[in-house]
Amino acid sequence: MFYNHFVYITTNEHRTTLYIGVTNNIQRRLSQHYFDSQNSKKSFAGKYNCIYLVYYEGFESSKDAIAREKEIKKWRREKKKSLVTSFNPKWETLNNQII
């Protein structure tokens, strides 16, 4: 199935900070996070170097993706960590696995 929208979670090198976002182009968005972390550090992801993709979910509609992002953002940290662990048990960087 082809998805047009993604909810994703990035983290920093030591896996201590989580950033949850939604996008219609995950590769471009990861590049933006990386650029900001190396340069202006104006965004949350850039300021805290959240450039390592550890979780993503695909959606056909932007409405569904935005609703899921809002749902996850309301969760406590432990629940977010459990979500990542169930998808990516070793918290490996998935940046190069995104097509």
From TrEMBL:
Regions annotated as coiled coil: none
**Residues in domain GIY-YIG?**
3-82
Query: Which Pfam families did the record assign?
Result: GIY-YIG (PF01541)
Checking SUPFAM superfamilies in the record gives: GIY-YIG endonuclease
Family indicated by similarity: Belongs to the UPF0213 family.
Q: What name appears for this protein in its UniProt entry?
A: GIY-YIG nuclease family protein
| Native source organism of the sequence | Arenibacter aquaticus
